Automatic annotation (TrEMBL):
InterPro entries: HATPase_C_sf, HATPase_dom, His_kinase_dom, Sig_transdc_His_kin-like_C, Sig_transdc_His_kin_SpoOB, SPOB_a
Keyword Transit peptide: no
Gene encoding the protein: rcsC_23
Transmembrane segments: 12-37, 44-63, 69-87, 94-113, 133-151, 172-194, 200-219
Organism: Paenibacillus plantiphilus
Coiled-coil blocks: none
Annotated protein name in UniProt: histidine kinase
Keywords: ATP-binding, Kinase, Membrane, Nucleotide-binding, Phosphoprotein, Transferase, Transmembrane, Transmembrane helix, Two-component regulatory system
């Protein structure tokens, strides 16, 4: 194979002026965006960037553009796997995706700039000083932006990282792979415009594949959105039914124990222990009434059933569960019953999971719902440890959880999504005296026609 003229000189300039700085910034940018910082990150980024740049650039002037892109992606994945073995496969793919995104930005920017100097080939023939002045200012700007993002902790893809790690649905994974393929095709198009013109047949095939892939991705996205809405409804129904089942089981247990209560009260009456009898009867009556009070106080059947179910669960777990639902909130028409159940149910369940870690005497959860200035407010407070600023910042991220036993960490993320769908807001406060308080504010919509069931 005959090497192109000035091959070695152009190769060294490409490696040290463009590829190594670009790859180093790309890897750094990826980890900052994902909010993931393994041990000895800087050292390993340098090793990975230098080795990968040298390997990829050696055949750059000898192979077609599409082969170079494939070689770039596969070799980067292999090298990241070797240097960062603790990364999950999904995280490795995300790192590569962000490296590619930054590379595309570089290529588009410098491709446009190169047109003013006669194109890509003309830039290659320029002096070294010219290339330094052309490439390094832009690379420096991206380095400053990445450093600023790390300093301010602007991890723009951290939520995406949590979602990708915990998602188990095949359609989501397939859509993610299709996006990567679409990016690959886009790189080929950009290289045709700014780097090397492609053969007409290659360009036609790439264009057709891009159109077909775009149509298919659009259909898949619509299917995923539709199935996600249906799945959300079924999940809410399942939670609703499970809570009701536990409530009825608790009521059946109380009825089963009623005979024992009668025997105890009869024995106390026979022994003329009237004070003890009165105290015991008050406890029994209070326990029975707790299962029926919600149905009497709350005209909304859906809300009453939800509260009754939570009362039964609280009684079973020895939790003091208080609620205060103002009557004005029952006329609020901007939130559907199913979303009200999802929001309150997830918040209360999360509060129950926290307080069961405490001694029985300290287990308290309080729910309040009211309307103020035509806005619906829902607050859920529970005793417990004080959350750190970092925990509050991550608490709504999909997949983030401090619990075991198969918790997916999607409950609060679903609450946030539902609240935002109504243009609402949610805040978290935490201190030693009051515990953890979730406050939701949902504005009234004049166009809403749906009322509580």
């Amino acid at each position: 194979m005959t090497l192109p003229p000035d091959y070695l000189s152009n190769l060294l300039q490409l490696i040290f002026i463009v590829t190594i700085p670009q790859t180093l910034i790309g890897l750094w940018f990826s980890f900052v965006c994902l909010g993931f910082f393994p041990e000895r990150l800087a050292r390993r980024i340098v090793i990975c960037g230098i080795v990968h740049s040298i390997y990829v650039d050696i055949p750059f002037f000898l192979i077609p553009t599409w082969a170079h892109i494939i070689n770039f992606i596969l070799s980067l994945y292999l090298l990241v796997s070797l240097i960062f073995p603790e990364l999950r496969p999904k995280i490795k793919i995300l790192v590569i995706v962000f490296v590619i995104i930054l590379a595309i930005i570089f290529e588009l920017f410098y491709g446009l700039v190169a047109q003013f100097f006669g194109g890509h080939d003309a830039v290659i023939d320029q002096f070294v000083a010219f290339k330094l002045l052309l490439f390094w200012p832009g690379i420096g700007v991206f380095a400053l932006i990445t450093g600023f993002m790390q300093w301010k902790k602007l991890h723009i893809a951290q939520q995406l990282r949590h979602f990708i790690i915990h998602v188990r649905s095949m359609p989501y994974f397939m859509l993610f792979l299709l996006v990567i393929v679409q990016v690959f095709l886009f790189i080929i198009f950009s290289s045709h415009i700014f780097v090397r013109p492609l053969h007409i047949l290659t360009l036609q095939v790439t264009f057709i594949l891009s159109i077909v892939l775009f149509i298919y991705m659009t259909i898949k996205i619509m299917q995923i959105i539709a199935s996600a809405r249906v799945e959300g409804i079924y999940q809410s129904q399942d939670t609703y039914i499970n809570d009701l089942t536990r409530m009825f089981a608790s009521i059946r247990g109380q009825r089963h124990d009623f005979a024992n209560h009668v025997q105890v009260m009869y024995s106390m009456l026979t022994l003329k222990k009237h004070d003890q009898l009165r105290t015991y009867m008050e406890e029994v009556v209070k326990e029975i009434q707790s299962m029926n009070v919600a149905a009497v106080e709350l005209p909304s059947p859906a809300l009453a059933a939800l509260v009754q179910a939570k009362v039964a669960i609280a009684t079973e777990k020895k939790i003091r569960f208080d609620y205060l639902v103002h009557t004005t909130s029952l006329t609020f028409s901007s939130v559907t019953s199913i979303d009200l159940v999802r929001i309150i149910g997830n918040l209360v369940d999360n509060a129950f999971d926290e307080v069961v870690k405490l001694p029985e005497s300290e287990r308290e959860v309080h729910l309040e719902m009211y309307v103020h200035n035509n806005d619906l407010y829902i607050t859920v407070m529970n005793t417990g440890k004080q959350l750190t600023d970092e925990e509050i910042e991550q608490i709504f991220n999909p997949g983030y959880t401090t619990k075991a036993d198969g918790h997916t960490g999607l409950g609060l993320a679903n609450v946030l999504e539902r609240v935002h769908s109504y243009n609402g807001q949610i805040s978290v406060d935490s201190d030693i005296d009051h515990g953890i308080i979730f406050t939701i504010k949902i504005p009234n919509s004049k166009h809403s026609r749906t009322k509580f069931a």
